[in-house]
TrEMBL record, chain A:
Molecular function in Gene Ontology: 3'-tRNA processing endoribonuclease activity
Keyword match Signal: no
Protein name as it appears in the record: MBL fold metallo-hydrolase
Species in which this protein is naturally found: Algoriphagus formosus
SMART domains referenced in this protein's UniProt entry, alphabetically: Lactamase_B
CDD domains named in the record: TaR3-like_MBL-fold (cd07715)
InterPro entries, alphabetized: Metallo-B-lactamas (IPR001279), RibonucZ/Hydroxyglut_hydro (IPR036866)
Ranges for domain Metallo-beta-lactamase: 26-218
Keyword Ubl conjugation: no
Keywords assigned: Hydrolase
Automatic annotation (TrEMBL), chain B:
Classification via InterPro entries: PAS, PAS-like_dom_sf, PAS_4
A Pfam family hit: PAS_4
Annotated source species: Algoriphagus formosus
Name of the featured protein: PAS domain-containing protein
SUPFAM superfamilies xrefs: PYP-like sensor domain (PAS domain) (SSF55785)
Length: 280, 130
């Protein structure tokens, strides 16, 4: 069984507040589990609650960082299992040409940004670098690929049997495509998302906002829906909600985009606390 | 067909937007894309040919030197770049698909992605007789 739980789907900055209660205010964090095998996608502010409510039997956790922008790493130091000597934490993240991932993570785990250093933890996390790779953890096959976003940024395709979760929370699909949305072979992220049962994908902007922010690394909801359609996914969860977008505004944006459209897959705005369970 | 790596997609995006003639090949030398300005030099439209295998496109344009002698594939900057993974530059003549002789200068450089993935090469060129 593959269980997917959203612990944070806000982009850029946590956005707590009553106007955001339904979709939630925590930044990127998704738990993927099968029994005691626990994968965590990104370590945004949502990972703090995940750490509090994690099954106490879990002894090994694999955290996959798509990239090191602050909204994807800010919760790491507050993840309780890092302070539990009985838990082994593996940190996977994108490689670069020059600076090792460990060195880049140390920038966060050091004053003045954070008082605790990686070396102060009871178990030093085990660091792994990824580029376009394929790995296996328990019953999960994980494929990583670089996608179009400023700085080294990965997308993850997680397969469990025949079931596929695709996770591309920060992705400017229009900039990474040569004839969008007509040429899958030349579209960033296609290999990650194709025929996924569940695609969690960046949809930070309206199309009007995107036109003012092209090159910032994010997608318009309209483009995200077209990308999902091109990839023939079964369900799309739109991710990376802008901090200023309230629950009602997010509902409005999606309703506007879906008006009069007939899609052969389901679409929703991702919601903190949502669970997707796949019997594989 | 599997999608191309991000770096080749962005490479294609880049040359698609510039007015210098340019083309993109994979590690085997297969032609993945050439831009509008290159279409003029080659006398071919990418929309009509699409990508071409190396044995196909290498025979379309006959490269020769200033003495009129044919240049072997190993003598071409792009092929040298693919073999050495280093930038290469050179000038020679080609007879294009419309039978027109073009004197061109070519600079080829490898596309090496993070952390050390060799994906192909890009060649930018211009005609010398204009």
């Amino acid at each position: 069984m593959m269980k997917v739980k959203i612990w944070g789907c806000r982009g850029s900055l946590p956005a707590p507040g009553p106007e955001n209660n339904f979709y939630g205010g925590n930044t990127s964090c998704v738990q993927v589990s099968d029994g005691e095998t626990c994968l965590v996608l990104d370590a945004g502010s949502g990972i703090q609650r995940l750490g509090r409510f994690l099954d106490q039997d879990v002894r090994q956790i694999h955290i996959f960082l798509t990239h090191l922008h602050i909204d994807h790493t800010m919760g790491l130091g507050f993840f309780l299992p890092l302070y539990n000597p009985n838990v082994e934490v593996h940190l996977w993240g994108p490689s670069t040409s020059d600076t090792p991932l460990l060195q880049r993570l140390r920038k966060y785990f050091s004053p003045p940004l954070f008082p605790v250093r990686l070396g102060d933890l009871p178990n030093h996390p085990i660091i792994h670098e990824l580029s376009d790779d394929q790995i296996q953890i328990g019953s999960f096959a994980i494929h990583s690929e670089f996608v179009c976003h400023p700085g080294p940024t990965l997308g993850f395709r997680i397969s469990h049997g025949d079931t596929v979760l695709a996770y591309i929370p920060d992705h400017e699909v229009r900039l990474g495509s040569n004839d969008f949305p007509n040429d899958p072979e030349w579209t960033s992220g296609y290999e990650i998302a194709k025929k996924a049962d569940l695609l969690l994908h960046d949809g930070a902007y309206t199309i009007a906002e995107y036109e003012e922010k092209a090159g910032w690394g994010h997608s318009a909801v309209q483009d995200t829906i077209e990308f999902a359609s091109m990839c023939k996914v079964k369900h799309l969860g739109i991710f990376h909600h802008e901090p200023n977008n309230t629950d009602s505004r997010l509902d409005e944006i999606l309703a506007e985009r879906l008006a009069g459209k007939e899609l052969d897959f389901s679409v929703e705005m991702c919601r903190e606390g949502a669970e997707y369970i796949f019997d594989t | 067909m599997p999608a191309q790596p991000l770096e080749l997609i962005l490479g294609r995006q880049f040359i698609d937007t510039i007015s210098l003639p340019a083309f993109l090949v994979d590690t085997e030398g297969n032609l993945l894309f050439y831009n509008e300005s290159a279409e003029t030099v080659f006398g071919l439209k990418f929309g009509e040919t699409g990508g071409m295998r190396v044995e196909e496109w290498a025979t379309i344009f006959t490269p020769y030197n200033e003495k009129g002698e044919l240049i072997s594939p190993e003598g071409l900057p792009l092929v040298q770049t693919l073999q050495t993974k280093k930038p290469t530059s050179g000038s020679f003549f080609i007879k294009n698909m419309q039978g027109r002789d073009e004197h061109i200068q070519v600079t080829a450089f490898p596309i090496i992605a993070r952390p050390d993935r060799f994906l192909g090469a890009m060649a930018i060129f211009w005609t010398l007789d204009e």
